[in-house]
Description:
single chain; alpha/beta; Rossmann fold; 7-stranded parallel sheet; 7 helices; 40% helix; binds nicotinamide-adenine-dinucleotide
Amino acid sequence: MNISLDxxxxxxxxxxxxxxxxxxxxxxASGAKVVIADRNQEAAKAAVEQLDGPSAIAVHMxxxxxxxxxxxxxxxxxxxxxxxxxxxxxxxxxxFTPLVDTTEELWDHVLRTNLKGYFLACKAALPELIxxxxxxxxxxxxxGFFPQQGGLAYTVAKHGVVGLIRELAFEVxxxxxxxxxxxxxxxxTDLRNAIKLGQAYGDDRSLFDDxxxxxxxxxxxxxxxxxxxEEVAGAIAFxxxxxxxxxxxxxxxxxGGYSVRGFQPPEQQE
Length: 270
Ligand SMILES: NC(=O)c1ccc[n+]([C@@H]2O[C@H](COP(=O)([O-])OP(=O)(O)OC[C@H]3O[C@@H](n4cnc5c(N)ncnc54)[C@H](O)[C@@H]3O)[C@@H](O)[C@H]2O)c1
């Protein structure tokens, strides 16, 4: 994709893997400087080494901590002098856990990372984005629109992200700052469960380690395939670029047509 982000300074939370890493690679290839902010320090450092662009740094942070988000923005300023783009993206999954099995701990962990983390990143970056008339792109989800795309906590968090995008877009438009989102459908990444039922944090399986999950996505997606992180990154880069200069408060569904499927299962469509 020929999108220019030449000279733009970007921060990508959760940039060490999956959609965030694909976005970091595309941003760097499009001329941006990239700050990869992630709780996985080793992966963030490895990601920086993979980038083709002029410059990138890794910031070790926990998206749910206000002081980490402030330090992330400060490190971006120290390294590159400004911030033009924030991609709020760091997230965990809830393992499709229904209400009856959702512990307070699981609820807090998912909401803290997937919603509070986005709020904290926006709050930390906004003063810099006002200076540059920059923009924010958040990774929402089809779970922000439809049930059964996650369990209870994940779906609630992603509905919250939709509200955050729309409210904040209105709030900051007069500063010339745009706020948009992408809503991926099932996309093959390293997305981790926040917590295994009955266990402490740190389930290190990816949602997509189970081949049945990928088969299910293919069966329920009109384009009959799961998404690739690069396909979501293209939408993020478009929204972050000047090509989208009159677009704010919008959420682009990158879902292989999931949102326009009707009652008929795709395998019965000719
Ligand atoms: N994969 C999908 O099917 C899908 C669909 C819709 C939305 N999303 C969303 O896309 C975003 C990216 O997820 P992904 O699928 O690329 O998963 P991923 O696991 O491949 O990448 C997520 C990154 O976030 C980081 N992270 C997690 N918790 C963090 C924290 N507290 N602080 C800092 N970094 C943290 C992880 O270390 C990882 O590098 C998430 O918000 C997710 O909800 C994913």
